[in-house]
Amino acid sequence: KVIYDKDRFGKYASPFLEPKMADNESRIWVYDLEKKKLSYLSQNILDITFSFDGKKIFYPFANSDGKISINQANFDGSNFEKIIDWPYGEPTIGVIDNNKLLLAYSTEEFENQGDGLYLLDIKDKKLATLTDKDFSTFFSLSKDKKQIFNYLPLFENSQTKSALWLTDVSAKNKSGYLKTEDELDYQNIAWSDDNKTIYLAGRPNGNNNFTKLYQYNANEKKLNLVFEENNSNFEAVEIDNNILYYLLNSQLYAAKI
Question: How many other CB atoms are found less than 10 A from the CB of residue 131?
Fold first, then answer.
């Protein structure tokens, strides 16, 4: 997503320069690696999630009166189609397979409606409720797309904490809530190749950096501290072929797990 800056883009001949676009306008841009072509999507597209093959996108679309629908289109926004009308605010979308999407929505307010996880059948255009009132805006799907790792920020006594829980995509076998003393980095969650372990960073209250690396065991439902690097910051975590890669203070490290 790019915020348009007319003066700066013009001065430096930016590839995002577009005379038709208003200053400070926010748009999602897509780059085609094969055709080496940069294009932008409709301003009404709030966010995008790619299909597994990268040829399609799924997204919440806000029309002129503010109502939201869940749509699909080619990756460049062409051949768009509305799947369903969405009755709540902007959801988070995850792709389970070629015909199923996972939608999460949370107001973080107990008196509001719509909080929970939903399963959307693309072909039949049917929406099923998986969990109700679960405040699960932030989630991560396992590599086999069978488990959902949920994260909820908690604010207690002016301190930021976290709650975690695990469920499968049918919303069965849900684990109990696990409360942590640290705030966890829900934007960087790495699943192991066997889908049994999750790695993510955490930071103590009062610290601006994510100085801790945690391991969450999906079988034991426990969060264990792997190690801590004071005065450091975990910026990204990923796992590939049983190798844990993590970015610490802009330096890349690798460790066998």
Answer: 18
